[in-house]
Specification:
By secondary structure, the protein is mainly β. The longest helix is centred in the C-terminal third of the chain and has 15 residues. The chain folds into two domains: about 210 residues, Beta Barrel (Thrombin, subunit H); about 30 residues, no CATH class. It is globular, with a radius of gyration of 23 Å. It contains three helices and 17 strands.
Length: about 260
């Protein structure tokens, strides 16, 4: 339930029509129960969007989800920096999340929460290939009662109807609550991230997610660069002394910074 008097603009709490969660194997159900969460974004006390997410790192806790969670209503090309993100964990705990990365081209976002999780994160680094027509499962989670949902289908060898050409299709039937949730194979391997369409269920494949995550990680851990420290007592060109300690990126910057004009 929303906290602090928060209320909804739209409902994203529609359960999958054919929820087969109870039929999943114990191993798959246990893994997904630990790493699938629900998220919602709020403008003040009004809920703007809600969807599913997948824990992909535990230290810190990072959650892969759809960037639709944080977009400006009515503008698919902009992020609303004023939204508050709430994450609903499987243990009934509700915590505030922070948007760390997003890619509007692929509609992918990573939300981070404080602390560590007792759950097992889904690893995305390993390369796994999936063939068409294999059986897959779409997993989602409702905020209400943290209810888990699953829908069964197969992979289809064609592109989706949405604008992004990288999207592929499965025959799983989901609701908007399943946006951002994982598409997995029968063994629980991550196949891709689900989106919603009235006529089909598109997903962004694992390899594209991996590309985006590599770029996110580069942004998170930038390559170290050399910087030069010039103390106040050091005579720089033209016999001048800097008025305060200075850092520059290259020795050429010394000349441009202190050259006479």
């Amino acid at each position: 339930m929303p906290k602090d008097g928060m209320h909804e603009i739209n409902s994203f709490e529609e359960e999958f029509e054919d929820n087969i969660w109870s039929t999943l194997s114990e191993d798959v159900a246990s893994t997904m129960a630990g790493c699938v969460v629900s998220l919602a974004s709020f403008n003040g006390k009004s809920k703007c969007f809600a969807c599913t997410g997948l824990i992909i790192d535990c230290t810190p806790v990072r959650i892969l989800t759809s960037a639709s969670l944080v977009k400006i209503s009515g503008d698919e090309n902009k992020i609303d920096d004023n939204l508050q993100i709430e994450v609903y964990l499987n243990n009934t705990e509700q915590v505030t999340g922070t948007l760390r990365h997003y890619d509007l081209c692929y509609n992918v976002a990573v939300v981070e929460i404080m602390g560590s999780c007792g759950s097992t994160a889904v690893g995305l680094r390993r390369h796994i290939s999936f063939t068409h027509n294999i059986e897959v499962l779409s997993v989602g989670r409702l905020i209400e009662h943290r209810k888990l949902m699953a829908s069964r289908g197969v992979l289809i060898d064609r592109k989706g109807k949405l604008a992004c050409e990288e999207l592929r299709i499965s025959t799983c039937k989901i609701t908007k609550a399943g946006i951002g949730g994982p598409l997995i194979d029968a063994r629980g391997n991550f196949v891709g991230m689900n989106f919603f369409h009235d006529e089909e269920t598109p997903y962004l494949p694992r390899e594209k997610i991996q590309e985006v995550m590599r770029r996110f990680n580069e942004e998170r851990w930038p390559e170290p660069r050399h910087r030069y420290f010039i103390p106040t007592w050091y005579p720089i060109p033209f016999g001048l002394f800097p008025e305060s300690d200075v850092y520059v990126d290259s020795l050429d910057d010394v000349y441009s910074k202190f050259a006479w004009h």
